[in-house]
Design brief:
This protein is an all-beta fold. The chain has one domain. Helices cover 0% and strands 71% of the residues. The chain contains no helices and six strands. Strands 1, 2, 3, 4, 5 and 6 form a six-stranded antiparallel sheet that branches. The protein is elongated, with a radius of gyration of 20 Å.
Length: 101
């Protein structure tokens, strides 16, 4: 994911960071009827939408790299006929170690 990232390195071994970057969502939604409403025909819609992601995190310098924790918020809009105007929001947490050469 391409993004602009700002890392505040003046605090010593603790390095907080924040960023923003684009997201491309390739969407497909299919609506089918059930036994309660058999009059609804199957509908499939496809679209490509743009959104964005915002990572917030912190690194702790350890050895030749840094341990890190990152919370990533993502958001995009969807306006399919079957779903209406909705959003594609999510949040994820990543933990890891980054080697710095």
């Amino acid at each position: 994911m391409p993004m602009f990232l700002y890392r505040l390195q003046s605090l010593g071994i603790v390095v907080p960071f924040v960023g923003i970057g684009p997201r491309i969502y390739l969407l497909k939604s299919t609506v089918r009827s059930n036994d309660l409403s058999p009059s609804i025909a199957e509908t499939t819609e496809k679209s490509t939408k743009l959104g964005f992601g915002i990572p917030l995190g912190i690194e702790l310098k350890l050895g030749p790299g840094a341990a890190l924790a990152e919370l990533l918020f993502q958001f995009g809009k969807i306006d399919h006929t079957a779903t209406g105007d909705r959003n594609l929001g999510s949040a994820s947490l990543a933990l890891g170690y980054r080697i710095v050469l």
